[in-house]
Design a protein that fits this description.
Elements lengths: L1 H21 L1 H12 L3 H22 L2
Helix pairs in contact: 1-2
Length: 62
Amino acid sequence: MGDILFAALALMLVIEGLLPFLSPGAWRRVFERATRMTDGQIRFLGLTSMIAGVAMLLLFWP
């Protein structure tokens, strides 16, 4: 179980690093927009992301 969790964390870091590596200007613009969002909007995005992640785990986990 620990190996799978570590692999998932490593994959998340690789995926999150793609945009700043490939297009730092676009990443900066996205980050600037995120700083202008309200707390409620950020919470909604976080909730949506968590629900999507759980749904993907339920669909694709053996």
